[in-house]
Amino acid sequence: MKKINVGLIGCGTVGSGVAKILMENTDLIRARVGADLILRRVADIDRKRDRGIRFDEGVLITDSYKVVDDPDIDIIVEMIGGEEVSRDMILRAIHNGKQVVTANKALLASHGNTIFREAAGKGVDLAFEASVGGCMPVIKTLRESLVGNRVKSMIGILNGTCNYILSKISDEGCTFKTALSEAQSRGFAEANPSLDVDGLDTAHKLAILTSLAYGMEINLHDIYIEGISNIAPLDIEFARDFGYRIKLLVISKNWENAVEARVHPTMIPFDNLLSNVNGTFNAITITGDAVGDILLYGHGAGMMPTASAVVSDIVDLARNILSGAKSRIPLLSYQMNHIRKIPIMPIDDISTHYYFRFSALDRPGVLSRISGILGDHKISIKSVHQKGRKSGGSVPIVMLTHIAREADVRKALSEIALLDIVSDRPVLIRIENENQED
User: Fold this and answer.
1) Which of 84, 164, 188, 237 has the fewest CB atoms within 10 Å, i.e. is most exposed?
2) How many CB atoms lie within 10 A of CB 168?
3) Could you count the other beta carbons within 10 Å of the beta carbon of residue 84?
4) Are 149 and 270 members of one domain?
5) Residue 144 DSSP code
6) What predicted TM-score, i.e. pTM, was given to this entire model?
7) In a domain, 266, yes or no
8) How confident is the model at residue 362 (pLDDT cuts 50, 70, 90)?
């Protein structure tokens, strides 16, 4: 039986899950692959941590270079996280001719163009299924299953922390602060949750997906990012009254010569399948010209679901080694000479429906002044709602619009914010309907 040696760099939560699967499911993997996958070396600075698994003598070491430079290791699995050290380790592994697996979305979003070019030039495969969507096979779907489709759009929930927080606010009416605190106590959010709640983690994933879907260079810099920390229970209550739920979405649409790529809280109708994805689950709808809509759903994070995706990549690379195949599937779905610089549309250029909430003084003529400014900027109001009275005489006025251009919306809201009848900054939430024509 042929043996394929695996070296694991980083044995934290997910790395431990990878080791556990490789060591405990040895017979299952052998039966499916036709070879033994041997965990030859594991490097981690903490050798005393209880990982719930027992390594043979000499397997667990502290020197990552001894793993990357070991001539007997075929596949390097990078589970360090961060950017600088992990980038150096991956590039060194590529230089050494190793096949590489990583789940490091931040690294790929920031340095992926360089890393993938190096891997392609060296004829090395780099697999990264676990970098987006945990155990959901979204990367395999884009690179393999939809190879005959022009991808028209991708809309989804790709951060379990944010989805958990918004679900708590929606279902229990608690504040953002309370929901975040519970997420932290249950291990769903970090002590410093900014990477998740500010939307950057989600943007890392979208940067990778847009490259795979559209044949473009990875471009994190131009993605519009807006987090969830300003979402109030009042807005979630209004959204429910109108038949919507609020989710932090990735939204990407292919306009051929430009691409929409944005991350922000979004109102979606109850009958949209994504509106019923709750807790820490992820889901994404991909629309192709041949298949129409497909939905992927599953755990977007966690020790074992993410480790499952990593092991899937290890097995794919092992099968390539067994068959003598190199670069069988293009790293970024397209051949490298067909990857282009496609511009991402500025947020000001998008057009969609909007939800506005104004805290306005309870006076005659207030509604006409606000609607007049909106009309001056070509924003057509679909409906207006006023509910309850706040202390100090201010009342919430809520409006839903027909399709409007973001640049016009921003100008109008800036003018309205300066009115003496408005007591707080206007709230804007974008609405994504399946039919965006009206």
Assistant:
1) 84
2) 20
3) 10
4) yes
5) I
6) 0.95
7) yes
8) confident
For 285, how many CA atoms within 13 A lie in the half-sphere containing its CB?
Answer: 16
Summarised one tens digit per residue, pLDDT across range 397-435 is: 999 999 999 999 999 999 999 999 998 999 999 999 866
Query: What positions carry a catalytic annotation?
Result: 205
List, in order, residues 6 or more apart from 133 with CB less than 8 Å away: 139, 158, 205, 282, 284, 296, 298, 300
Residues paired with residue 283 on neighbouring β-strands, in sequence order: 157, 297
Cα separation, 381 vs 375, in Å, equals 8
Amino acid (one-letter) located at 204: H
| Cβ-count burial 104-119 (b if 16+ within 10 Å, e if not) | bbbbbbbbbbebbeeb
Distance CA 301, CA 319 (A): 26
For residue 191, what are the contacts with CB-CB under 8 A and spacing of at least 6?
Answer: 184
Predicted local distance difference test score (pLDDT) of residue 438: 67
Token pair 């270079």 in the structure block, residue:
65
More confident residue, 434 or 58: 58
Distance CA 137, CA 222 (A): 26
pLDDT tens-place string over residues 314-356: 999 999 999 999 889 999 999 999 999 999 999 999 999 999 9
Residue 437 is assigned to a structural domain of this protein? no
Q: What is the CATH number of the domain that holds 313?
A: 3.40.50.720
Letter for the amino acid at 368? S
